[in-house]
Amino acid sequence: MRLLDIITKKRDGFVLTDLEINTLIHAYTNDEIPDYQMAAWLMSVYFQGMTIEETATLTMAMANSGNMMDLTAVPGIKVDKHSTGGVADTTTLILAPLIAAAGVPIAKMSGRGLGFTGGTLDKLDAIAGIKTTLSQSEFISILQKHNVAVIGQSIDIAPADGKIYALRDVTATVESIPLIASSIMSKKIAAGANKILLDVKVGKGAFMKKMEDAIKLAETMVHIGQLVGRETRAIVSSMDEPLGQAIGNSLEVQEAINILSGRGEESLRHVSLFLGAHMLHMARAVPNITVGYETLTKLLDNKIALAKFKEFILAQGGNANIIDNPNLLPQAKIKVKVVSTDRGFVQMVDAAKIGNCAMRLGAGREYKGQKIDLAAGIMLEQRVGDFVEKGQLLCTIYANDERHVKEVQALLLDAIKIGSDKVSKTKLVLGTVDIQGFQAI
Ligand code: URA
Ligand code: CA
Q1: Is 65 a catalytic residue?
Q2: In the chain, pLDDT over 90 holds for what percent of residues?
Q3: Model pLDDT, residue 282
Q4: What whole-number distance in Å separates Cα of residue 360 and Cα of residue 402?
Q5: Which ligand is nearest to the CA of 395?
Q6: Which of 18, 65, 202, 343 could form an SS bridge with 390, CB 3.0 to 4.6 Å?
Q7: Which of 10, 78, 82, 360 is catalytic?
Q8: Smallest Cα–Cα separation from 164: which of 348, 28, 322?
């Protein structure tokens, strides 16, 4: 089989066979095809698309390119969750202990932040000593003992995806639904959980700007899960405005502690509970979503999930004293208040702009491998629909490096629009997708 024929066939809009897809992925992973040929194939997929069967084959070819985690030694139905990326999206730090506290094993594989979107591994780095580079046996042993373990995405999990993603990034082929869906699902499948819950974000601060694209992506991933025998469900949720109050690694750990203490921001709490209720339902631990939501609400309010968070931190070698004393987390030297220059209703809190501000302050990376400032970030005090007086606090900047503070102050005033029109709160959860399709909420 000539690789040139596979490229030509896709370029002309034909459907590839399993053998052709497997051959291509295998060859690329083993450095047997040059980047320019793979790039040409990716661009062909970008324009011609793939059938769901081709997409599932691509997913499994990438999943099988490295280590497939085997979690059968852990009893019960293991669940994993994944967000397509957002701003102030601290749900994993809340859900990991919360789901475990409900008795369901949560085997979570997490990544680092990319661009203005945060990543769980960076947030966990704010907890001194915590170890997320674990061997498969360490991961399983922690999971067996505590029902929760979080592992960093290692190079031997779906290495084909790592290589292809890097190429997509520089060849304008990221924004393709079959390529995104197979990329995400290959890693989730290789990570070993039985059930996968996806949080597909839509809006200004998300990969998908349009609802129809978010639904299409969610449906594609759910369908892949079905074809390869891993039950997958998706939530479509809004990322027009940041989900929680805190943007920045140390600040987000503090916010998670707040929520796990039964306090904290309502929107982040609600989305976490909603996602969690679906995870419990998928694990057959509750008869329906309502009971799941109520079960988890109790575990937040009686602080059992908080105790689980402490247990999880200790199990992975971290300093659990941060729970009772969050001042032990990295602290910023500079705190600057940003106040409203107008009186009126908050019309918009632009998640992409706010995320970029946090990145400028050092909370995220502008290029791969950049060192981040764990203490830097932004605390938002207002949400869309709130009424503010002139001079009222909109948000606080946390920084260690003075250089970008003035600039960020101006950018934040541009990101938070105040006007006289009364506006309603952002609808957070927009719908769910299972094998029956999209259902609006
Ligand atoms: N996240 C991924 O893991 N892959 C993509 O292609 C896009 C987002
Ligand atoms: Ca307010």
Answers
A1: no
A2: 93
A3: 98
A4: 11
A5: 2
A6: 343
A7: 82
A8: 28
Domains and CATH numbers, the chain: 3-49 (1.20.970.10), 79-324 (3.40.1030.10), 331-419 (3.90.1170.30)
Cβ-based burial of 37 (10 A; exposed 0-12, middle 13-18, buried ≥19)? middle
User: Is 70 marked active-site?
Assistant: no
- Annotated catalytic residue within 187, 195, 230, 233: 187
Protein residues with CB under 6 Å of any ligand 1 atom = 165, 174, 179-180, 183-184
- The position carrying tokens 């990101």 is 415
Q: Is the pTM of this model over 0.85?
A: yes
Residue 183 catalytic? yes
pLDDT tens-digit readout, 399-417: 999 999 999 999 999 999 9
323 CA from centroid of ligand 2 (Å)? 27
Q: Residue 130, by phi and psi: left (phi above 0), alpha (psi -120 to 50) or beta? A: beta
Q: Is 416 helix (H, G, I), strand (E, B) or coil?
A: strand
- Closest by CA to 198, choosing from 76, 348, 85, is 85
- The Å distance, Cα 394 to ligand 2 centre, comes to 8
Mapped onto helix, strand or coil, the DSSP state of residue 322 is helix
CA-proximal residue: ligand 1, atom 2 (nearest):
184
